[in-house]
Amino acid sequence: MATRRAVHGDGTIYQRASDHRWVGSFLIDGNRKYVYGKTQREAREKLRQTQADQQQGRLVKVAPQTLKQYLEQWLERRSVNLKKITFSGYWKAIQKYILPHVGDIQLKKNHQ
Length: 112
Prior knowledge:
Elements (H helix, E strand, L loop, with lengths): L11 E4 L6 E7 L2 E7 L2 H16 L11 H12 L5 H19 L10
Antiparallel strand pairs: 1-2, 2-3
Helix pairs in contact: 2-3
């Protein structure tokens, strides 16, 4: 049975039926922030930590970006762990098959 929280804006915790993970969520500037845990306690702790981070100004708002920008950053971050030939193959595939068709699409907020 779900219970109401005492304070408005304190967030909510529930268990998803699809994969039985626990979800904690709360609003930040009109956008919902989600955290996940294997147990209700883990989700509650992550929710409290995320809320504390937000109150301390440690949550960074991410500027909107396109799929092209995201993929370039993603590949750059992983380049240190990839062999040169693997990096080259990924880069060519992204340039040839993905970016010409959907590279300009604006990405929306990720719900972890």
